[in-house]
Amino acid sequence: MSESSGQGAEPVAPGFETISKSSWMGFIKNLATFTGDLSTLSAPSFILSGTSLLEYMSYWFEFPELFVSIVDHEHPKDRMLAVLKWYMAGLSREYASRNKSYGTEKKPLNPILGELYYGSWDSSKGKVELVAEQVSHHGPVSAARVHCKEAGISVDTHNMYRSGFSGRTVYVNQIGQIRIHLDKFNETYYLTLPNISLEGLWYMTPYIELYGSTYIVSTSNYITKIDYSGRGYFSGTKNSFKATVYEKGANPDYVAEGVWTGTSKVTDTKSKTTSPFLDYGTMDAIPILPRPYSEVGEWETRHVWGKVSSALARNAYDIVSVEKSTVEQSQRDMRKREQEEGVEWKRRYFEWKPDESSARNLLAQAVQEIIEPGYWVYVGDTQPECKPGDHPVRRT
Ligand SMILES: CC(C)CCC[C@@H](C)[C@H]1CC[C@H]2[C@@H]3CC=C4C[C@@H](O)CC[C@]4(C)[C@H]3CC[C@]12C
Fold this sequence. Notes:
Porin; two-stranded parallel ribbon; 20 strands; 23% helix; globular; OSBP_sf; Oxysterol-bd
């Protein structure tokens, strides 16, 4: 990912071949005058990714073995380290996988209210299953439940965020959280999500950098603080991190550091031994296996956005705008009808619940910021028999 203009022929990033420098610069200049949350920005088609942001929930779980093996450790500090390992590997998928060698981040499709996504992974312990739902459109919030019954491990996560433009970069403040529950130990982990910035915009090479700190707090009283730094910060190396694992009020047990898209090592501070932690380059990510198209219904993301993404894949931008408007207009009509009938949209799998647990207080203390007063909890399928005529997209 080079930000310099370089010598000779410029490499052309995949997906960016058809974008002219002048239309890109026009968009960036336009962006500079935009105020408000960027999810409401109507971006030109050439900058759109064909993937809905709802599907991005699955990136975290693309190393299913790291996920299910969290329960294999007897000591809580080792479970905390295993959660950290899973999280650091997930970061690479969530924030860097669309930018393997160039800055090629695009604007994901903004999921419609009630959009659904289902899929699974195989693991040595059993199936890891994901159900995701767009629980809010304005501002956007996706919620997901991931569960491995055999391993007794479940996750509730949602990704609320605020974004804006500073003149040079897009910055995103993530307010959502990940929660992991381990049945066997009756233990819950709260994970916060990093602040991100989108760099390289003026060079037509957008890629994500992380900054600030995130926390993992467990009901076992173990806490991890992770500090992020990019190029130009203290370490000077891109995608660097340093994570400290400690029991509340005590000295660190483990310190892990390195590059989250590359290699990192971990030091056991008691025995003073250092060993390899992650080597991302040698790990094979396993993409989600989506539930078959014919089984999922009209609200599933591929049904909602299929026509838009296939037009995007062909660079047929005129068709993209028509199809995208159809989806968006159908949604506006639906909201209008609800208003007229005095009904509120009913979420299918998730419910917002206030959280007054002690773990939440521990997190608030560690983070020293205002954290959300509750979270989106999976409550099972509340509408198992959906009306077949209830289409999210109406083509007239
Ligand atoms: C490509 C450019 C120039 C247009 C601007 C697009 C911006 C708004 C897009 C590009 C990549 C996007 C991010 C990609 C991944 C995630 C992780 C998810 O869990 C929360 C949203 C978040 C953090 C997105 C927020 C919006 C985002 C920053």
